[in-house]
Amino acid sequence: MRRILSLLAVLSLLAAVFPMSAPAASKYKTWNAIVDDMDKVLNKSYALYAAGNVNGAKGQVNAAYFQFYEKLGFEKTVMSYISGSRATKVEYQFTIIKKAMTNKRPPAEVKAALDDLSKWLREDANQLDGTKESEWGVFLSSLLIITREGFEAIIVVGAIVAYLIKSGNAGKARAVYHGAFIALIASVLLAVALNNIASLSGANQEIIEGATMLVAVAVLFYVSNWMVGKAGAEAWSAYIKDKVESSLSGGSLFSLAFAAFLAVFREGAETILFYQALMGTTKLYTNMIWAGLGVGCALLAVIYAAIRFLSIKLPLKQFFIGTSSLLAVMAFSFLGKGIKELQEGNVIGVTPVGSFDSVELLGIYPTLETLLPQAVLLAVTLATFSLQMRKSGAFRKKEA
Q1: Can you spell out the DSSP letters for 338-349?
Q2: Which of 62, 261, 345, 352 is deepest in the core (most CB within 10 A)?
Q3: Can you tell me the distance from the alpha carbon of 93 to that of 102, in angstroms, rounded to the nearest whole number?
Q4: CA geometry: angle at 215 spanning 202 and 245, to 5°?
Q5: End-to-end Cα separation, the chain, in angstroms
């Protein structure tokens, strides 16, 4: 618990000393002013498309997204003050427009899609500009950022540490904390690089974040299956202890520490960028940002304590199943979010499916490219969990 509090304190300190030169604090005084210039870029995009210049038109759509919507903090401010699903809907519209252009859809169809995007941007700008800054509004925005971005990371770290303690390897939890601490430092370095190295911003930033999440999916899938394999050993705790000791010394400890690193790293840089956007849009109550950050860190510490101490009181079998299931859910969520980042980086296409809103917490988005891999991962996870449980049952019968 002391170490996780230290990690959260380090996070607060890093956020405090990080140069908050928010992009939003630029020549633009209102969000509507930004949308005015975005409309000019989007209108130019349509003119190029109507003239037959598809690549030029897509380049203007990319400029509207990366140079305005993302770089000026529009996306992150919408996520903070309106909703994550709204930001996702607008983000996907940029990609849908580019896909329509690539497929050489009729100009009227492309124009309708561009008009929808402009309308949604204006609606959001009106809402953001019409929102009078208040102490509690700033506080809640700051609190939402740190709890939303830190929730998944704290679950992964808490579950792994609880697992090590439960399996008699409490002394090896230090490697997991080290992994999380290194990830915090790496997050700050990445945030600095994203702000100062032009070649890393824009599409490359999305690709870095997406690739990190997909690596995390592979590690979490491995770790969750490794844990569930121990679930049937309730009556053989000594056997389990020996096996776990052997596995940890054989390199699995690195996997656990690496899983913690990826969980923190993938959220860290983005959290800093979110706070940059919030600092750039807050004029009167910057003190409430730090208050929200502090309270959010305290809430994360409570969540960590709940996972660690309550889970340890569970029976061994239920604990292993619950912990591995939790990490499997995280892998499912990271898969959807990782693919979404690659879609925003123009690496993977977008095929809309249905009209339901995204579920940010679980990484569920209404596109074929995200849903299909998640369905496959879910099926494989259920199959491997079932296989591991059957093997454990067979072992129990053999030993009886």
Answers
A1: HHHHHHHTTSS-
A2: 261
A3: 14
A4: 150
A5: 39
